[in-house]
Amino acid sequence: MATEIKIAIQGGAASFHDTAARKYFAPEKAEILPCSSFDQLCEQLHLGEATYGVMAIQNALAGSILTNYTLLQEYQHFQIIGELWLPIDQNLMALPGQRLEDIKTVISHPVALLQCGLFLRQHHLPTEERQDTADSAREISAKGLKGVAAIASSQAAELYGMEMLQEHVADRKDNYTRFLVLSSQPQAQAPKPTANKASLIVQIPHVGSWLGAVINKLYTEDINIPLIQSIPAPAGNTSHNVAIDLECDDYYRLLHAIEELKPMVEDLQLLGLYQKALTPQQLEECREGELSTSVNS
Ligand SMILES: O=C(O)C(=O)C[C@]1(C(=O)O)C=C[C@@H](O)C=C1
Q1: What total number of domains does the chain contain?
Q2: In which band, very low, low, confident or very high, does the pLDDT at 6 lie, cut at 50, 70 and 90?
Q3: Strongest mean pLDDT among 19-33, 137-151, 187-201
Q4: For residue 285, is it within any domain?
Q5: Is residue 75 part of a domain?
Q6: Nearest CA to ligand 1 atom 10
Q7: pLDDT tens digits for 70-123?
């Protein structure tokens, strides 16, 4: 029988976090705990109000969400137990009967607005930030706002009775967001030897070529590095923090490489050991494969 788990997300029903959480945990039934910010998501997970948290960390068009690395540094006891790359299809929607010419303002999550910069500039559409894509559609519907459009998913359009003004408005069709699955109870989720990915934050001095030495070490250990992201350091700091993702199909080699890095850096925070998800490139290849099968059949 499917058990029910509670998952804290940023945003509400029909947001991309909602879709990501349900997809990751399917076929388990997920009860969603909507949060108004990433801070609140972490707080709820910390307080034990949710079993897991799902948090966006990186988008193929807009880049890394650096403030979420800061939260992961703050909540040191959280563990990343998994990840998911989700295709993000953005759409422009408004109250039924509205036309593109009627729209004076577009509201959405700041990352969603960034993903649709080309479309918005082309149509000279001023924007206003909101906490969530789907909640922007809900706001228009609840307040009966004319002259305002939202950028959100097709599920949000359906849920809140919006009409599509323009589908697929992101700058590129291969728009993907990577979501982290977080647990605040590492003991209940001990990493399994099937883990083939690790996420770390290392602290290294500003001076010297420490980062070069770290990368060189990983190269000699034959570890793949899918991500290196510098994280802003507090003012006056003499060192900086770098988020690094490591991949290796041999779990024990991955552990060994992490041990080797420890004496080379000032501090190393292991954010989690988990199984890597299909990358956007792999998902695109699957999608193209499915398309050609349906055309040929
Ligand atoms: O507003 C939403 O629907 C979200 O889930 C937020 C969010 C984000 O935080 O990056 C998630 C994925 C998309 O890339 C755009 C926005």
Answers
A1: 3
A2: very high
A3: 137-151
A4: no
A5: yes
A6: 111
A7: 999 999 999 999 999 999 999 999 999 999 999 999 999 999 999 999 999 999
User: Do 157 and 181 belong together in one domain?
Assistant: no
Q: Which is the closest atom of ligand 1 to the Cα of 108?
A: 1
Q: What is the CATH number of the domain that holds 9?
A: 3.40.190.10
Same domain, 28 and 126: no
Which of these ranges, 55-64, 185-194, 213-222, has the smallest mean pLDDT? Answer: 185-194
**Cβ < 6 Å from ligand 1: which residues?**
10-11, 15-17, 56, 59, 88, 109, 111-112, 132-134, 177
**Whole domain around residue 21: which residue ranges?**
1-87+175-189
Q: Whose CA is nearest to atom 11 of ligand 1?
A: 16
> And the tokens for 215?
């990368």
Q: For residue 11, how far is its CA from the centre of ligand 1 (angstroms)? A: 8
82 and 95 both lie in a single domain: no
C-alpha to C-alpha distance for 255 and 196, rounded to whole angstroms: 10
Looking at the structure, tell me whether residues 23 and 162 fall in a common domain: no
User: Measuring CA to CA, how many Å separate 6 from each of 40, 113, 292?
Assistant: 15, 29, 38
